[in-house]
Amino acid sequence: MPNSIYARCLWLPRSVCLTVALLWLAYQPAWSQSPTWQTQSPSALRVAEPGVALAQPPAQSDMPIAEGEGYNGPSPKTLDEFVELAERSHPRLRAARAAIEAARGKAVQARLYPNPVIAGFTPQAAGQDSQWSGTVAQDIVTGGKLRLSQQAALRDVQKAEYELIRARFDVLRDVRQTYYSLLVSQRRLEIYQLLLDIAKRSYDIGRQLAEAGEGTKADVLFWSIERDRAEVRLLNASVYIETGRRQLAAAIGLPRVDIGKLDADLSQKLPNFDLKDLQEAVVRSNARPRVLEAQIAGNQWALERAVVQPIPNVNVLGGYQRQVGGPPQDQGLAQVMMAVPLFDRNQGNIRSARAQIASARAEMRMVELDLANQTAQAVAAYRTSQRLVAWYEEYILPKARETVSLTQTLYARGEVTFLSLLQAQRILTETELAYVESQAERWTGAVSIADLLQLEMFPPPADAPAVSGMGESNSELNRLQQDDQLKKRPEPVPPVAPAAIAPRADMEPLPVPPPLARPIDPLRPAAP
Question: Which among 415, 420, 423, 411 is positioned nearest to 504, based on CA atoms?
């Protein structure tokens, strides 16, 4: 005991000294250990529970990019690079991880035992008849209430972990969608540039023919309108490129990052999915039903906790009392208290807990039905776009290219005008544009299906759940080719090899538009 307390006890009554010493001894260990618990690591406060995965803190190399920090690395180009940045920097993921830590803290708190209560008092202070007392009281929790409360809180930890999984795939969906939207915008810009080149040359030729007396002013005005339309579409496409880059930067959580030309292939083959198997796989793998399963389990533990609530806790009190009057007396104090569940037996909370279980089960069923409906809609859009892309690749684009090739041959023989050749070139370019738009719808559907399945790999691999085969669209086209109506169609004229075309010496024909996979600089200046 410190010297100051000892010196004061020389002139105070012994009962007072004993009470002060008891209080000092009770609180002294907590004071002496306070620096220890204040510096304790967060992982030491976690509660391990079978079936509840508690993630470890991220390693130093995986630490997220702090909010407000700029990204100083190279400009990302591939989808994997954008996904990596999003997982490190997106605030939605940081909020979900913080929610898990908050749930873990509540689970720890739910199992902590009540603190004892220490009191020092005097029931009578009257000189020689004074009494000095000190007591210690403790609540004894019965019925396993603390264990049940922690079990219910641990289900909240599971729920928060599943919500983190769902939040991560929501971020991945936004990144994938904006990435391929920007990729489509890049290709669209290239096609608009080709259309503008064709429109300019058509206008120049029409004006020359009008000046030579072989054309009319109406033809010149028509090609002038086509040129102006192509120019404004090119300008608008440039705007969509810039806004798409900013949207992609915001999707990864770094709105100031610089984004250049993307590196991906729009014409990459994608698998086909069986609708019924896909619906079952989505309900089985998606995190939304798992969130509600954890909520149902938590409600069941809460029901058990409500059932044992009427079991009274026991309050035990013990103490010492000193009476200084003559003769002095030493007395012991003892007390046991508990509530009697006579009127309130927690009937209302038990009834409410049962209703919450039924509500959560119904909500989980509604979520499963909603996922099945979303899957059907996504598969419908995906299949139609897949078929449209296949038809463009099998029929429409080859015919448009063949038309350009035949027109070039006829122009070389002097049988058609140069404006006819430009018109064929324009039709081919617009067909390429429609093909790109169908590719955009196809990738939108693929992103939706991957989001429902929560696929880590994207584009979806051939071994993804519910995949029915890679070549279903082509095989369907082959079957249609064997149909009687298709057999009655005239055979297409075989294309003329480019080397066999002899262009006229007065005018050079325009080149055929490049294939879809050719990389371009989306903001390159227009050719003079």
Answer: 411
The token pair that represents 509 in the structure block: 């024909």
pTM of the full structure = 0.73
Distance, C-alpha 225 to centroid of its chain = 45
Q: State how far the Cα of 327 lies from the Cα of 443, in Å rounded to an integer.
A: 96
CA 438 to CA 338: how far, in whole Å? 74
Q: Residue 121 pairs with which residues in a beta bridge? A: 133
Rounded distance between C-alpha atoms, residue 273 and residue 282, angstroms: 12
Q: Please write the tens of the pLDDT for every residue from 304-319.
A: 999 999 999 999 999 9
Peptide bond preceding 327: is omega within 30 degrees of 0, i.e. cis? yes
Q: CA separation (Å) from 70 to 91, 356, 415?
A: 14, 46, 62
- CB-based contact 317:135 (threshold 8 Å): yes
> So where are the chain's domains?
1-30, 76-500
pLDDT on residue 56: 46
Digit-coded pLDDT (tens) for 245-265: 999 999 999 988 889 888 888
Q: What is the mean pLDDT of the chain?
A: 78
* Region for residue 515 given its phi and psi (left: phi exceeds 0; alpha: psi -120 to 50; beta: otherwise): beta
Phi and psi at residue 83, in whole multiples of 5°? Answer: -65, -40
Look at strands 314-323 and 117-124 and give their pairing.
unpaired
pLDDT band at 523 (very low <50, low <70, confident <90, very high): very low
Residue 272: φ, ψ to 5°:
-105, 155
Min mean pLDDT across 195-204, 252-261, 338-347, 438-447 is at: 195-204
Measured CA to CA, the distance from residue 4 to residue 19 in angstroms comes to 15
Domain 76-500 sits in which CATH superfamily? Outer membrane efflux proteins (OEP) (1.20.1600.10)
Q: Do the Cβ atoms of 438 and 267 come closer than 8 Å? A: no
Out of 67-76, 126-135, 487-496, give the one with best mean pLDDT: 126-135
Whether the upstream peptide bond of residue 459 has omega within 30° of 0, thus cis, is: yes
Closest CA to 171 of 465, 467, 450, 460: 450
Determine the pLDDT at residue 445.
Answer: 94
* CA–CA gap between residue 172 and residue 291 (Å, rounded): 19
The rounded Cα 306 to chain-centroid distance in angstroms is: 36
Which neighbouring-strand residues pair with 139?
A: 315
- The string of pLDDT tens digits covering residues 346-376 is 999 999 999 999 999 999 999 999 999 999 9
386 near 273, Cβ under 8 Å? Answer: no
Token reading at 404: 């350009």
- Asked whether the beta carbons of 424 and 399 are under 8 A apart, the reply is no
Instruction: Identify each DSSP E strand in 16-140 by its residue range.
Output: 117-124, 131-140
